Amino acid sequence: MRVFADYMTLFRLPGALRFSIPGLIARMPISMDSLALIFIVVAISDSYAIAGALSATASVVIAFATPHWSRVADRIGQSSMLVRVIPVKVFAFCVFTILVLNETPVWTWFVAIIVTEAFSVNTGGLVRRRWLHVLSPDKTSTAEDEQDRHLVNTAYSFEALMDEVVFILGPIIVTACATTIAPVAGIISGIIFLAVGVPLFVIQKDTEPPATPKREVDPHPAVIRNKRVQAVVVPTTLLGGFFGSIAIVTVAFAESRGQAGLSGVLLAIWAAGSAVAAIINGVIKWRLTSASRFLIYLFVLTILSIPMLFVHSIPWLAVALFFNGFAIAPLVINAYGVAEGAVPPEQITETLTWVVAGMPMGGALASALSGQIIDRFGADIAYWVPLGFMIAACAATLPYFQTYKGLIGYP
Question: For residue 370, how far is the Cα from the chain centroid?
Answer without folding.
Answer: 20
